[in-house]
Design a protein that fits this description.
It is a single chain. The protein is α+β, with helices and mostly antiparallel strands. The chain has one domain: Pleckstrin-homology domain (PH domain)/Phosphotyrosine-binding domain (PTB) (PH-domain like), CATH 2.30.29. It is 33% helix and 31% strand. It is built from 5 helices and 7 strands. The strands form 2 sheets. A 4-stranded antiparallel sheet has the order 1-2-3-4. Strands 5-6-7 form a 3-stranded antiparallel sheet, with helices on one face. β6 and β7 form a beta hairpin. The radius of gyration is 17 Å and the shape is elongated. The termini are far apart.
Length: 143
């Protein structure tokens, strides 16, 4: 089997249209007008997380495709502010060794972010093993 045949999709989707309670209140107060720029912003972002890479497609009329291989991910953070938790959304922040994207934020996604974090963490470790990549921490000031 080739590498692409082994690749499985862990998450695919766009940011939530109404990601938090504050956004819902803004929508109600503006009688839905606030949804128009939010809808445009939601259309402009698409995330695809697989067992080998993370692909972020941005733009509506002009498109930009950014890809980060999972073996480059060094740290993970799950961010679920209270108003997002109330709406069932969250953020996954990944720190990488990629020079163009040292930090990748997968924001306002309507999924179990903690479960996605676990899947990405396990897939990252598996990808590092498959590629023979080892991460070494060096302490500053150690003699």
């Amino acid at each position: 089997m080739t590498r692409t045949e082994e690749e499985g999709v862990l998450f695919e989707g766009r940011p939530a249209l109404v990601p938090s309670l504050g956004a819902l209140l803004l929508c109600i107060l503006t009688v839905g007008i606030w949804l128009l720029p939010q809808w445009w912003r939601q259309l402009s972002r698409h995330y695809r997380v697989t067992s080998r890479r993370i692909v972020v497609e941005s733009g509506v009329l002009s498109k930009r495709l950014e890809q980060i291989d999972l073996y480059r991910v060094t740290d993970y953070t799950v961010d679920k502010p209270i108003f997002q938790r109330m709406m069932g959304t969250g953020n996954l922040v990944l720190r990488t060794l990629d020079k163009n994207a040292a930090e990748l934020r997968i924001q306002n996604i309507k999924t179990d972010v903690v479960a996605l974090y676990e899947q990405v963490r396990l897939a990252t470790e598996a990808d590092k093993r498959a590629r023979g990549v080892r991460m070494v921490d060096f302490e500053q000031g150690a003699v």
